[in-house]
């Protein structure tokens, strides 16, 4: 293997741990990195390497994948380790892998365009939560374009826009990026409308995706509450499956909104901006207290649900989506063409209530919808009432009658 002049691994190791200390990462996290450094040092020694390069990191990962029987999650963690090491080696410093939009550094050109786009969205009546979401998605898109070598919007090409879009894993963000690109062309930031290169997410299913009570139980039962992650994840699942809370409201739930004394959760809904009050069911109460008292990291953060590793920031909706998907897989619940993610609990709760004869108005209030017609979406799966609408099949005639009575064959 050809070597190039690069810092020795011990130098990179010292730099990386200094950055971990500066960003207040836990001792457990640093211990994990020390273990990975031992494996990397062994690999380099066996191959006669003293200097580290990105190519050495790539070879290490390929060798580990080929010679070790490891899980996908372990390989993902190893990739994260090598990415951090490469960031230091390439002179980028320490790049947080979980960052918010306001932590991304953009050039003046990109910042101005993004700010003007958000202002136009505000003028159209977008609420603050939507504006925050669009800011994050557009900022991340601009960040990706900059990383690809585009220094100003005037240099943007269809190829660069395509490459940036393909790095965006959240398909819901594509719609926002498409609108942003149209805005850039309308305002003269770009010489062409590149919105046509943005992939289109699959059309949403008309009928709500519903999971049975047994499937919901399997998802919940897959959680191992002996771990900190399990204690937290069970709370998240129960808030979604028992109280039909949206993932955005779950991650923003704060201590001030949970009233254990009166048995209520009172919070302002992120989507509608309306106050919602829900009862704390016994299983929800027990799960919350178990996580808060026995699992939650020691933090001054007011939001209840935090990341497992330092820095202990509040969770994102993407993390909630991952929790649900992992638990579905562990519980052996297959989507089989249905949607999968936190929203399945809301649709399943709503459909269950409708089938049990609960009025649409009551269901609407529990789900926190403003539009009284929205809940009628679940009428499509109102089995009992749909049975009353069933029509009697007409008597067979002609060839069909002869076929059924054995006087004709296919």
Overview of this protein structure:
The longest helix is centred in the first third of the chain and has 20 residues, at 27-46. The chain folds into 3 domains: 9-89; 101-197, DNA polymerase, domain 1, CATH 1.10.150; 213-384, hpI Integrase, Chain A. The protein has 410 residues and is mainly alpha-helical. It contains 17 helices and 3 strands. 25% of the residues are buried. The chain has a 3-stranded antiparallel beta sheet with strand order 1-2-3, with no helix packed on it. The model is unreliable at 1-6 and 98-103 (pLDDT under 50). The protein is 53% helix and 3% strand. It has helices at residues 9-22, 27-46, 54-67, 72-89, 108-123, 128-147, 158-166, 172-186, 213-221, 228-243, 247-251, 282-294, 317-330, 343-355, 360-367, 383-388, 398-404, and strands at residues 258-259, 264-268, 275-279. Helix 3 (54-67) runs antiparallel to helix 4 and helix 6 crosses helix 8 (172-186).
Keywords for this structure?
410 residues; mainly alpha; DNA polymerase, domain 1; hpI Integrase, Chain A; 3 domains; three-stranded antiparallel beta sheet; 17 helices; 53% helix
Q: Domain count, please report it.
A: 3
Beta-strand residue fraction: under 5%
Question: How large is the radius of gyration?
Answer: 27 Å
CATH architecture of the largest domain: Orthogonal Bundle
Helix residue percentage: 40-55%
* Strand arrangement, major sheet: 1-2-3
Task: Identify low-pLDDT runs.
Answer: 1-6, 98-103
Reconstruct the topology from this structure.
Layout: H1 9-22, H2 27-46, H3 54-67, H4 72-89, H5 108-123, H6 128-147, H7 158-166, H8 172-186, H9 213-221, H10 228-243, H11 247-251, E1 258-259, E2 264-268, E3 275-279, H12 282-294, H13 317-330, H14 343-355, H15 360-367, H16 383-388, H17 398-404
Antiparallel strand pairs: 1-2, 2-3
Helix pairs in contact: 1-4, 3-4, 5-6, 6-7, 6-8, 10-12, 10-14
